[in-house]
Amino acid sequence: xxxxxxxxxxxxxxxxxxxxxxxxxxxxxxxxxxxxxxxxxxxxxxxxxxxxxxxxxxxxxxxxxxxxxxxxxxxxxxxxxxxxxxxxxxxxxxxxxxxxxxxxxxxxxxxxxxxxxxxxxxxxxxxxxxxxxxxxxxxxxxxxxxxxxxxxxxxxxxxxxxxxxxxxxxxxxxxxxxxxxxxxxxxxxxxxxxxxxxxxxxxxxxxxxxxxxxxxxxxxxxxxxxxxxxxxxxxxxxxxxxxxxxxxxxxxxxxxxxxxxxxxxxxxxxxxxxxxxxxxxxxxxxxxxxxxxxxxxxxxxxxxxxxxxxxxxxxxxxxxxxxxxxxxxxxxxxxxxxxxxxxxxxxxxxxxxxxxxxxxxxxxxxxxxxxxxxxxxxxxxxxxxxxxxxxxxxxxxxxxxxxxxxxxxxxxxxxxxxxxxxxxxxxxxxxxxxxxxxxxxxxxxxxxxxxxxxxxxxxxxxxxxxxxxxxxxxxxxxxxxxxxxxxxxxxxxxxxxxxxxxxxxxxxxxxxxxxxxxxxxxxxxxxxxxxxxxxxxxxxxxxxxxxxxxxxxxxxxxxxxxxxxxxxxxxxxxxxxxxxxxxxxxxxxxxxxxxxxxxxxxxxxxxxxxxxxxxxxxxxxxxxxxxxxxxxxxxxxxxxxxxxxxxxxxxxxxxxxxxxxxxxxxxxxxxxxxxxxxxxxxxxxxxxxxxxxxxxxxxxxxxxxxxxxxxxxxxxxxxxxxxxxxxxxxxxxxxxxxxxxxxxxxxxxxxxxxxxxxxxxxxxxxxxxxxxxxxxxxxxxxxxxxxxxxxxxxxxxxxxxxxx
DNA sequence: AGCACGCCGACT
DNA sequence: GTCGGCGTGCTC
Length: 804
Description:
By secondary structure, the protein is of the alpha/beta class. The chain folds into 6 domains: 73 residues, PriA, 3(prime) DNA-binding domain (GIY-YIG endonuclease, 3-Layer(aba) Sandwich), CATH 3.40.1440.60; 57 residues; 74 residues, no CATH class; 179 residues, Rossmann fold; 185 residues, Rossmann fold (3-Layer(aba) Sandwich); 91 residues, Alpha-Beta Plaits. Helix content is 32%, strand content 24%. The strands form 8 sheets. The protein has a 7-stranded parallel β-sheet with strand order 15-16-14-17-18-13-19, with helices on both faces. A 6-stranded mixed β-sheet has the order 5-2-1-4-3-6. It has a 6-stranded parallel β-sheet with strand order 20-30-29-21-28-27, sandwiched between helices. β3 and β4 form a beta hairpin. α6 runs antiparallel to α7 and α7 crosses α9. The protein is globular and about 90 Å long. The relative contact order is 0.07. It binds a DNA duplex through β1, β2, β3 and α24. It is an enzyme of class 5 (isomerase). Pfam families: DEAD, Helicase_C, PriA_3primeBD, PriA_C, Zn_ribbon_PriA.
């Protein structure tokens, strides 16, 4: 009986986005499973692939079918659930199946392809230049020949059949092993060895004697050096006498540097208990119900999660907790680790490839029961999921911006249906989509109206910066904010200042000719960074040092415009020279662990003012913070995006929530040039309801979600004309295919019309019900993508885009 | 995608 | 007569 495997190969291209049949060699038949990774010959090369189905026959003619060349996993890396989920993702987000499969695994398991040149004949037949490269080895990386400019010689040798080129498939990451010392488990042998050591070798004698009290143990060399007061040379010598051996032991890399204390549950308020009961009931009844937990800042949503998870673990099931990347602070993860200890794995982008792999393995091997992580943790390979939680449900980081463009919320709900378990979407400011669904009873709404410790919400004051300007205050601090800061400094309370920008100045301008420094690759002005004296592009990373004269007119009247965190810091130190300021932005948190360090320092009271960007809006929970200042609420309001009002309201509410979370009352000062805008006006009372009503009205009028669905098509090319032409062609084609209830807007140049040297055009599709949309878009890709790629056109499709 | 195959023009 | 350009088509 023959066994045939259907394999999805690691080639992301439309024509090969389907399973290929391979024969399973006899020695693999009992080991291979669906979800195993395999190495297969594909055309002239070797690639990695995933087994998606095993069957006993095939329609492929015998002369065409090839065997699997290697099985990479004894245990499959993907479950049947994941294989199903990948098919769904492929359809739902219009991506390649291989991309959908790869996104579920840590990057360490991805393939690394290397071209190797192997010697086939006597080395003496090669020209001198090639002989040198080979040296003593018979296999050399192709890159070496490229580096040394020997491609012509190589080609010649290839024609003469002296060498062959082969593609080697390797795995990116590996299991970490440590070298340990295994002490001989025979006491008598140790005694005998000790007796044979010459009296001159005192240290060796001592070590063997020490080993006699550790018979059969495995110990790290460093521990031995310390405890037995000895050195590596002595240990080497003793090992050569046979008293111990070196062994290699598999370990998990440990991303946690500090241990946490075990903590007990907190008492719940009535509201919290009611919410918890409903969730637990749903869990017990194995319902795939989606809850929207709408609780104001400080209402104790996390405590509800923790107790629900505890119930879930009691039932012998696993829990997945998703948090936005930015709020994956130690404060948050510690809270989970202090409740569930070693049962928690943490996954976020701050971990190294190896650390991510190990956290994934803990889940895969069933060593942990709870995962706390960013977006991709929604794919945690648990097999018996009891609850899935998305904290700060409205956050845009839950949507992946490149293929597969999935939303973690949708994946969570899919998995909840598979496992018959509830999903909890938690937020103080839910996305309009989710709240609308809750109102329509698609989701079950749970509300927490009061703060857990009964503290009142902070008082919010909106300051009109236009008035300040009229009264002659040209600084970036209003008088009101300055007074408040003064008061806190005197009372030794802490202040958080929030600025929605980084860098020193937004742009660099020549005062004589008005030239603004621009990025070479993108249509974006460069941002001045004071610490490095450089001008950087925040989109592609391009940077130049600050020019002494204008590149256009050579005038030396160069000025820096706009406000960034560095400039605020400078002004702060002028206004309040005694205040200790900590700055937290992308620049000061580049180094691994810097994020934690800054927060820790602020929490310990080492500074009076924390000044930062987006990243301080979440998760900060220190009792001594009593003042929050928002320097300019407008920055996010004027973005060309239909969600800008929602984003602004969410941000203001989140930031305000940082103040007065404990005994001391909090105060918030919001500075703005548009105090009359409803997103700002309504954030004063921090009431979600009125904002929701108002924003829904706007969405209805403008035809945006949740009233309509959106799809965004983007066409880009290095040449403007090409990009525009093909964007036009695309829109024309779509208009001819889609029905009249679908409106197609565009093509228009994208917000940032040139990015990384490509001009971008986009069109927006708005629809209510259009069953043909996905098939039509797939047809568009099928008909045109591979053809256009040869012309340099990149066509991308984003269903339910978060930003437009 | 990435590679071989094949056809055509420029050179030893 | 051979080398290398890139258009075409296939990958179990």
